Amino acid sequence: MPTHAPVHVLGLGKTYGKVVALDGISFTIDEGSVLGVLGHNGAGKTSLIDILTTGARPTSGAATICGWDVVRFPHHVRRSIGVAGQFATVDEELTGRAQLVLLARLYGAGRRAARDRADELIDAFGLADAARRKVRTYSGGMRRKLDLAAGLVARPPVLFLDEPTTGLDPVSRNVLWEIVTDLAHQGTAVLLTTQYLDEADVLADTLIVLARGRVVAEGRPADLKRSLGNRTVAIRFPSLTASEYAAQCVASHGFRPVRDSGEPLLRIPVSGTGDIASLVRTLDGSGVDVGDLTVSEPTLDDVYLALHGAGDHPG
Amino acid sequence: MSRHAAPVRGPRPDITTSPTTPIRRSPPAAHREHWGVSGFGTQLWVLALRSIRTAFGHYRLIFLGILQPVVIMLLFSQAFAGVSELPGVASYGSYINYLLPATLVTIAVITAMSSGAALMFEITSGFVGRLRTMPISLFAVLLARSISDTLRLVVQLAAAMVVAVLVLDFRSTSWVASVAACALTAAVGWGMSWVFIAIATWRPSQEVMQAASFVVIFPLMFTTSAYMPVESMPGWMEAVATVNPLTYAIDAVRALTVGDPYGTDLAAALALLCCAALIGILTAAHGIRRTR
């Protein structure tokens, strides 16, 4: 059996009437790796997932899943993929366990195998307490977990996650992150769409940034972050005098503090962890009292700003 | 393909959070055994069973489902009591004998409409979206829906019959005739459910779906002999009634329950229902697989 990349996409394009949803997207996802697709609403993320999960046909280009063309062999593709999404696609009126058993049966498992698989997933996802309750009664986090479990019923080699943590609380988010990391470690190829740079940073090996259906940047998350910039350290001081003094101190050490008018607050762009350490040493040496210090990561908006014009203004 | 050697990934120092629920570190994807694919029969069985469980899994739904035909019948038997004086009705002995068949068919059409609404909900809620990504036949999804709703209809029809006999003094010629009347009505429900399922597969908005359903239902029900004899209608309406499949279905059910000859009506009803079902099936099968 020849080895195919789990996901291979070449020059994929999709138009709806005059609207261009995807414009020549290409990438490959290897076994055990996670591709993060980053973009705002309307950037083309959902169109991409729709095509790769056989829900929509591309207008140009091609895509294969485990060697099967998504247009010509949709049935084979469907045997190789698992999908979990932003909208928890689970049946409200069934219990969590019944839902998983149902899906396993539809995937071809016998009664016993289906029940075993359902119990296995319930166990692995920590849903044991809720397994025999109707999904209607589940919290948002539990629904997402169940939805992800539902996507994994057939142990698919390729997993699509469409904004799996949008709107989730931090704890549930971390749980889902762990599960996805585990899956990748075990060899699953994962395509993850997200609006959150930190999520892509934690989960993805490779990242593509979509804007208006085009790839405007790609690479390892760390490289991408380095290329676009910078983290910002925000420091609050007890008084305006203190912040003014601190601003002079750090400026003399090569930092470029930005004052917040009227507030004893400084924003200082830094490039690496070393910078933060030296900043803290400088402040310590100057003897100023520091009220509060936070480090903020670049956001998706920063990515777009840094890539200004690349995709937003075609032509 | 070997699954043993997972590619080496870089360290992930970012994940230092501790989830509240313990997560077992191994199973989900560790070993992939192949189940193959499920057959059409299994898909149909599993999906139909699911819908039936949903329909009968809630006491309120069961109660309301059974109450619905009873309410319709009690209301109509009182409101239209005067109709029994009309010449077309007199021959049936009492108005309940005239009304019951129409009530049965009304119940069938309403249940058929709810089939479409239920499918519509499953499409918009994303459940069908998940099934779309699975290696199964989407036609099985539709067929399972029509079958399970027809079973639900049979229970409603039985309840209506019992109430008619016990409360409204309905007398059929024989048990066999009553069962045959219910069977024909169930066939009406099954055939008509495809019309509404077909509408739902074209993914209209909730409002459009409702509007479309009423546009289908009202002309169908009121241009029949359901509540008034066809002879007492204006000419154009009488003409429409004579080509309406439900007229034949209602007349056949009536003939069955009072022991009149029913051959022609039954044949016409079944033929027209098959046509409706076939068109519905073809449209729905195409609509549900339609990709964007």
From TrEMBL, chain A:
Q: Enumerate the Pfam families for this protein.
A: ABC_tran
One GO biological process term: daunorubicin transport
Its annotated compartments are:
Cell membrane
Q: Where is the ABC transporter domain?
A: 7-237
Topologically, how does it sit relative to the membrane?
Peripheral membrane protein
- What is a single molecular function from GO for this protein? ATP hydrolysis activity
The record's keywords, sorted A to Z, are: Antibiotic resistance, ATP-binding, Cell membrane, Membrane, Nucleotide-binding, Translocase, Transport
Q: Which InterPro entries match?
A: AAA+_ATPase (IPR003593), ABC_transporter-like_ATP-bd (IPR003439), ABC_transporter-like_CS (IPR017871), ABC_transporter_ATP-binding (IPR050763), DrrA (IPR005894), P-loop_NTPase (IPR027417)
Which Gene3D superfamilies does this entry report, sorted A to Z? P-loop containing nucleotide triphosphate hydrolases
| Coarse class of the protein's main subcellular location | membrane
* GO cellular component terms listed in the entry, alphabetical order: plasma membrane
Q: Can you tell which superkingdom this protein's organism belongs to? A: Bacteria
PANTHER family membership: ABC TRANSPORTER ATP-BINDING PROTEIN (PTHR42711), DOXORUBICIN RESISTANCE ATP-BINDING PROTEIN DRRA (PTHR42711:SF19)
- Family assignment? Belongs to the ABC transporter superfamily. Drug exporter-1 (DrugE1) (TC 3.A.1.105) family.
Name the record gives this protein: ABC-2 type transport system ATP-binding protein
UniProtKB/TrEMBL annotation, chain B:
Which InterPro entries does this chain map to?
A: ABC2_TM, ABC2_TM_bact-type, ABC_2_transport, Nod_factor_ABC_transporter
Q: Which residues cross the membrane?
A: 61-83, 103-129, 150-168, 174-199, 211-230, 266-288
Biological processes annotated in GO? response to antibiotic
Task: Please give the PROSITE patterns that the UniProt record associates with this protein.
Answer: ABC_TM2 (PS51012)
Q: Name one GO molecular function term.
A: ABC-type transporter activity
Q: Report the principal subcellular site.
A: membrane
Where found?
Answer: Cell membrane; Membrane
> Where is the stretch described as Disordered?
1-34
Low complexity bias: start-end ranges: 13-28
Q: How does it sit in the membrane?
A: Multi-pass membrane protein
* Sorted UniProt keywords: Antibiotic resistance, Cell membrane, Membrane, Transmembrane, Transmembrane helix, Transport
ABC transmembrane type-2 domain span = 60-291
GO annotations of cellular component type:
ATP-binding cassette (ABC) transporter complex
Q: What's this protein's family per the entry?
A: Belongs to the ABC-2 integral membrane protein family.
* Protein name in the entry: Transport permease protein
